[in-house]
Amino acid sequence: MPNAITIIRRDHRAVESFYDRYVASQLVERKEEFCQAICEALTRHAEMEENIFYPAVQKEGGDELRRQTEEFYTAHQEMKTYIEDLEGLDDEVGKMDRQVRLLMSAVERHVEEEENYLLPKVERALGELRLEELGTEMAVFAETRALRQK
Ligand SMILES: [Fe+2]
Predict the structure, then answer these.
(1) Is 25 helix (H, G, I), strand (E, B) or coil?
(2) Å from CA of 28 to ligand 1 middle
(3) Taking the CA atoms of the chain, what radius of gyration do you get in angstroms?
(4) Ligand 1 mean position to 50 CA, how many Å?
(5) Which of 42, 48, 91, 133 is the most buried (most CB within 10 A)?
(6) What value, to the nearest 5°, has the Cα angle with vertex 113 and ends 51 and 47?
(7) What residues are neighbours of ligand 1 (ion), with CB under 5 Å?
């Protein structure tokens, strides 16, 4: 079972690869598919972080990490707004391109801050065993959520 940090990094890579494929697509239908894949993967990722990972870090990581994690909830809020805007969009490709770019620049900032700044500190504060437990909880959470949506 992958630990919490591995799961988070893997989610980030998946979103980036959907975006690469979005950019490489010529057909509107393909672009729409990848746009939807980006939004779904991000929503799932944010829910998993907000329900399992961030609360654990805030509870167990000490004062500094508790404050810093607060900012990540705010960044998620920004991404959610962009995702909602995308869902309300009509078929105009130019608009979708601009909107997806906006979303992805927020994602880039999130990924950079989380991977370079938050995760290394969490790794030190929580330790390998706890991160493995959290990884299992996160995997179960994602699985249950996927089943609910079927
Ligand atoms: Fe993340």
Answers:
(1) coil
(2) 28
(3) 16
(4) 10
(5) 42
(6) 20
(7) 114
Distance 45 CA to ligand 1 centre (A): 7
Q: Which two tokens stand for residue 9?
A: 């990094």
Question: If we measure between CA atoms, which residue out of 44, 51, 61, 52 comes closest to residue 10?
Answer: 44
Mean predicted confidence (pLDDT) in 88-103: 88
The CA 130 to ligand 1 mean position distance, Å, reads 18
Task: Give the Cβ contact number of residue 15 at 10 Å.
Answer: 21
Give pLDDT, residue 111.
96
Q: For the whole model, what pTM was predicted?
A: 0.92
Residues 107-129 have a mean pLDDT of 96
Tokens of 142: 């994602």
Token couple for 126: 């929580």
CB atoms under 10 Å from CB of 36, counted, come to 14
Q: Give residue-wise pLDDT tens across range 23-53.
A: 999 999 999 999 999 999 999 999 999 999 9
Domains and CATH numbers, the chain: 4-145 (1.20.120.520)
According to the model, what pLDDT value does residue 145 have?
82
Q: Is there a contact between 78 and 106 (Cβ–Cβ < 8 Å)? A: yes
Helices in 49-92 by DSSP H: which ranges?
54-60, 63-87
